[in-house]
Design brief:
Elements lengths: L6 H21 L7 E2 L1 H8 L3 H13 L3 E4 L3 E4 L4 H20 L6 H19 L3 H16 L5 H13 L1 H7 L3 H19 L3 H23 L11
Antiparallel strand pairs: 1-3, 2-3
Helix pairs in contact: 1-3, 1-6, 1-8, 2-3, 4-7, 4-10, 5-6, 5-9, 8-10, 9-10
Protein name: HTH gntR-type domain-containing protein
InterPro entries: GntR_C, TF_FadR/GntR_C, Tscrpt_reg_HTH_GntR, WH-like_DNA-bd_sf, WH_DNA-bd_sf
GO molecular function, one term: DNA-binding transcription factor activity
C-alpha cells in the first residue's frame, strides 16, 4: 500500500514553499519576469511538486506570480505604470496610517532603534535578505501601532507585490546607507510625536526608493503622476 501524505503535512510543506519563494524574492535571487520551475523548486526544497504547485497558486492569488497556459509560472513583471500605481496607493494608505498613530512609548522606540541598528549591521555585510526582512519588520511595527488593521493589511499586500523590485535597489551601497539614515530621522519624529513630519519623511523615503528603481530599471514615469 502506498503511503499518502496527510493534508496537514502537505499544508505545512506548501507554507514552507511559500516562505522560501518569498525569501528568494526578498534577496533578489528571483527577479521580475523570471520563470519558476516547479521541478527545480521541489528538488531544492526537498518536497514533492504538489505543495510547490499549491504555494505558487497562493502566490498567484496575491499577485506575486503569474501563470500562463503552456508556459508555467513566472514572477510578476509590473509595467512602469503599474509600479507607479502601487507606490501611489502605498503613499495614500501609509499617510493615513501615520496620521492615526498614537504617541509611541519609549520601549517601542527602543525596539525600532534596535531594528534599525540591525539593518545597519546587515547593510555593511551586505546581507540583502536580512536587510529586506528587518526593513519590513521596522515599517510594519510602526504601521500596526495605528490600530488600522485592514488598512495595514492592504499596505502589506502592496509591499509583497513589489518585493522583487525593492531587492534590486538594496544592492546599491548608497541606498542601504540612506535607508538607515532616513529610519533614524523617522524615529526622531515619532519620538517627538510629530506625525506630519513622519508623513513627510516617509514620502521622501518612498520617493527615494522609487527614484532609485527608475534609474536601475530604466522606468519612465507617466506625465502627471506624483508619488508624494
Amino acid at each position: 500500500m502506498t503511503a499518502q501524505r496527510s493534508p496537514g503535512r502537505r499544508e505545512s510543506s506548501a507554507s514552507r514553499a511559500v516562505e522560501a519563494i518569498r525569501q528568494m524574492l526578498r534577496s533578489g535571487e528571483l527577479l521580475p519576469g523570471q520563470p519558476l520551475r516547479q521541478e527545480a523548486l521541489a528538488e531544492r526544497l526537498g518536497i514533492s511538486r504538489v505543495p510547490v504547485r499549491e504555494a505558487l497558486k497562493a502566490l498567484e492569488a496575491e499577485g506575486i506570480v503569474r501563470h500562463q497556459p503552456n508556459a508555467g509560472y513566472t514572477v510578476v513583471r509590473l509595467s512602469a505604470e503599474e509600479l507607479q500605481q502601487a507606490y501611489l496607493m502605498r503613499a495614500a494608505l501609509e499617510s493615513v496610517v501615520l496620521r492615526e498613530l498614537p504617541r509611541l512609548p519609549a520601549e517601542q522606540l527602543r525596539e525600532l532603534t534596535e531594528l534599525n541598528n540591525r539593518i545597519d549591521e546587515a547593510a555593511r555585510v551586505p546581507d540583502i535578505l536580512r536587510i529586506s526582512e528587518l526593513n519590513h519588520e521596522f515599517h510594519f511595527k510602526i504601521f500596526r501601532s495605528s490600530g488600522l488593521h485592514l488598512v495595514v493589511d492592504e499596505i502589506e499586500r502592496l509591499w509583497k507585490m513589489t518585493e522583487a523590485y525593492r531587492a534590486v535597489y538594496l544592492y546599491d551601497a548608497t541606498a542601504r546607507r540612506r535607508i538607515v539614515r532616513e529610519h533614524r530621522q523617522l524615529i526622531s519624529a515619532l519620538r517627538r510625536g510629530q506625525r506630519e513630519r513622519a508623513v513627510e519623511l516617509m514620502d521622501e523615503h518612498r520617493q527615494a526608493t522609487r527614484s532609485c528603481l527608475d534609474t536601475v530599471l530604466g522606468l519612465t514615469s507617466r506625465p502627471g503622476f506624483s508619488l508624494a
